[in-house]
Write a structure and sequence with these properties.
The chain is mainly alpha-helical. 75% of the residues lie in helices and 0% in strands.
Length: 236
């Protein structure tokens, strides 16, 4: 079961919802066959994440929350912050930015309670993206720079890539683009993944900063594109 669990988490970081859905289905089968409640909880939130990113964020959110609440009942708190981050993503894809912020706030409380910081950079990026869409550019900028600093403190190159990409999409500053280029040059894996492709595209042709793209002026497809620019969830 652990192998499938890690496979699903890996594919989340690669931003591949089809593969996440496949791993979740196999995890569900295993959990049902051997009566593994932990596996049932995990397959729910992985299925929810995939469903949200495949076009049904409301149903995805419900599955994620169901899996989260089941995990908590089982005393499984290690991945609570990450699971709440999935819930925030689903609500962001649904355009419910205020509700998404509540999920991020709850996730931050989990980080404070457990001291588990591995998912903190992603949560800070989520907070920054939400702030952008709620018209709070100062908070967005602060959160994204905190995400970069936290990724550096963790010495996590992949997280530095994700956070650096989000920051470049936010501001497009020359120094930030140089930082992102140096980060990409240090990578030796995941080179054909969506996060790396996004980083390279930003380096080659910087986009209009997210701080100039706000909720209420974008269509759904544009919001989803901006959503990926703004958070790029990942962390190998």
């Amino acid at each position: 079961m652990a192998a499938l669990w890690f496979e699903a988490q890996f594919e989340v970081r690669m931003e591949d919802p089809e593969r996440v859905a496949h791993a979740a289905k196999r995890l569900q089968t295993l959990a049902e066959e051997y009566a593994l409640p932990e596996g049932r909880a995990a397959q729910l939130y992985f299925r929810g994440w995939a469903q949200a990113h495949l076009g049904d964020p409301h149903a995805g959110y419900r599955l994620i929350r169901e899996g989260y609440e089941e995990s908590i009942r089982l005393g499984m708190r290690a991945d609570a912050a990450e699971t709440l981050g999935y819930a925030a993503e689903a609500l962001m894809l649904a355009g419910d930015w205020t509700a998404a912020r509540r999920q991020v706030d709850e996730a931050m409380q989990c980080v404070d309670a457990t001291g588990e910081r591995k998912y903190l950079p992603q949560l800070l990026l989520l907070d920054g993206r939400i702030a952008n869409m709620l018209g709070e550019p100062d908070r967005a900028r602060q959160s994204m720079r905190q995400a970069v600093a936290e990724a550096q403190a963790q010495e996590a190159l992949w997280l530095q890539l994700i956070a650096g990409s989000a920051l470049c999409a936010q501001e497009g500053a020359t120094d930030d683009l140089k930082y992102l280029r140096r980060t990409v040059e240090q990578l030796n894996e995941g080179l054909d993944s969506a996060p790396v492709a996004r980083a390279r595209a930003l380096i080659k042709a910087p986009r209009t900063p997210l701080s100039r793209r706000r909720s209420g002026t974008l269509g759904v497809a544009e919001q989803r594109a901006g959503f990926r620019d703004g958070i790029g969830i990942g962390g190998l």
